[in-house]
Design a protein that fits this description.
Helix content is about 35%, strand content about 25%. By secondary structure, it is an alpha/beta fold. It has one domain: 3-Layer(aba) Sandwich (Protocatechuate 4,5-dioxygenase, Chain B). β11 and β12 form a beta hairpin. α4 packs across α6 and α6 packs parallel to α10. The protein binds 3,4-dihydroxybenzoic acid and fe (iii) ion.
């Protein structure tokens, strides 16, 4: 079991793991409707069994969930590049079929405000969200990792990234933001063990001529590079995501925030890749830090 960091003899929060996972809404519907053992879904959910045990054993104090809003809380009227949820609670959004029957998401305002201050003073121009409804981008990853508890096992700090309206942030910017989040967490004077989720992806395109596009070769290279060659993964330009991973493949830049929040060297605890779930190639990683 990893314990909280004690640097210079003082207690501080510490990042103890990274999770990457796709957030396809149909996965949430399959869970909510009891279909996880159906032929179509069983192979997908099998790949998360080890992850559910890992996170249960890890028992983190807080989860920072990097996700994107799908025109739910935000719209074309207001498009923050990075919005950090600093509220006590984040209601589950109704995306057109009623809110998902999952527990409310409780935040961690003390740590969230500390991160906001640290990031802004570190020259990342963050939007502070004190009211934020969360959609499938955040709730599906929670369900995949935590199952169907009566209450989520830890507070959640949502970090919402614009990947819907051009221009989204670059992968490099996202990686550097992750590094700044690591510094922010490690300068919080409380013994908290924090896990960071990067969500969305992998290859998928939901619209126009190339709807249904899946590129397993790109996805698997991305998984390898994200784990072992993050400097290569963070240099991928927008056009390459668009061309190779489809118009919604750009969601993968959010995985780079999670990766940046970890050390340069990590070990891969678990990997799962499954095609398709709805229109999407589902990818999943569990990472832990090696020494820096
Ligand atoms: C699908 C995938 C997404 O990432 C999303 O946000 C919406 C739909 C899909 O494959 O159906
Ligand atoms: Fe999405």
């Amino acid at each position: 079991m990893v314990t909280a960091a004690s640097r210079n003899g003082r207690v501080s929060a510490k990042i103890v793991g990274g999770v990457a996972t796709s957030h396809v809404p149909a996965i949430g519907a399959a869970i909510d409707q009891g279909k996880t053992t159906d032929d179509y879904w069983a192979p997908l959910f099998k790949g998360f069994e080890k992850s559910q045990k890992w996170i249960k054993d890890l028992n983190p104090d807080v989860a920072i969930v990097v996700y994107n809003d799908h025109a739910t809380a935000f719209s074309l009227e207001l498009i923050p590049t990075f919005a950090l949820g600093c509220a006590e609670e984040f209601p589950i959004a109704d995306e057109g079929w009623g809110a998902r029957p999952v527990p409310p998401v409780y935040g961690h305002p003390d740590l969230a405000w500390h991160i906001a201050q640290s990031l802004i003073l570190d020259e990342f121009d963050l939007t502070i969200a004190n009211r934020l409804e969360v959609d499938h981008g955040l709730t599906v990853p929670l369900s995949l990792l935590f199952g169907q508890p009566a209450r989520w096992p830890c507070p959640v700090i949502p970090l919402c990234v614009n990947v819907v309206q051009y221009p989204p942030p670059t992968g490099n910017r996202c990686y550097n933001l992750g590094k700044a989040i690591q510094r922010a967490v490690e300068s919080f004077d409380e013994d908290l063990r924090v896990v960071v989720f990067g969500t969305g992806g992998m290859s998928h395109q939901l619209q126009a001529e190339r709807a249904g596009l899946i590129n397993s070769e790109f996805d698997n290279r991305f998984l390898d590079d994200l784990v072992n060659r993050p400097d290569k993964a963070r240099a991928i330009p927008h056009l390459e995501y668009l061309r190779e991973a489809g118009s919604e493949g750009i969601e993968l830049v959010m995985w780079l925030i999670m990766r940046g929040a970890l050390n340069k060297k990590v070990h891969e605890i678990h990997r799962h890749y499954h095609v398709p779930a709805s229109n999407t190639a589902v990818g999943h990683l569990i990472l832990e830090n090696d020494s820096r």
